[in-house]
Amino acid sequence: MAIQLGGKGGAMSEPNVVPLIDVLLVLIIIFMAITPTTPVGLKAQVPQPAPPNEKPEMQTRTIVVQVARDGGLKINEQPVTWSTLGTQLVAVFKERAPGDRVAFIKGDKDVPYLYVARAIDIMSASDVEMVGLLTKKVEEGQ
Fold it and tell me: How many helices (H) and strands (E) does the chain have?
């Protein structure tokens, strides 16, 4: 425990590590308790490409929000502004069933990520349950 007598060197002290181990075990339990067990984030859905021989067709019920590199927005080729995007999406999804509220977002190649993230944030606050990512390769069926 504290002092060991004997030998040529005389008295020899050894540190007591039991309290240190107790503190470390308590810290491990605290970190395990505060660590989230499920990841938090947005649900994303990627559309599946069409077979290679068919040209992919967009359904009439599919909602695509396009973000241009200059910050412009379109909903299914209809221009909208940032201030009206949320109300337009609420109006579109007002009459749809809860499982049918899926929209896709499409950004130009050089669009800043800030614009896409802002659009996704507005979409998730506007009754959109799932936000899918639409890329050029997916549109072409690759």
Answer: 4, 8
In a domain, 39, yes or no: no
Q: What's the token pair of residue 95?
A: 């009459």
- Both 78 and 54 in one domain: the answer is yes
Q: For strand 73-75 and strand 63-67, is the pairing parallel, antiparallel, or unpaired? A: antiparallel
Using DSSP's 3-state secondary structure scheme, residue 116 falls into helix
Give me the amino acid identity at 14.
E
Q: Say if CB 86 and CB 114 are below 8 A apart.
A: no
pTM here is 0.55
Mean pLDDT computed over every residue of the chain: 78
Q: Give the pairing type, strands 44-45 and 63-67.
A: unpaired
Note whether residue 13 is domain-resident: yes
In a domain, 126, yes or no: yes
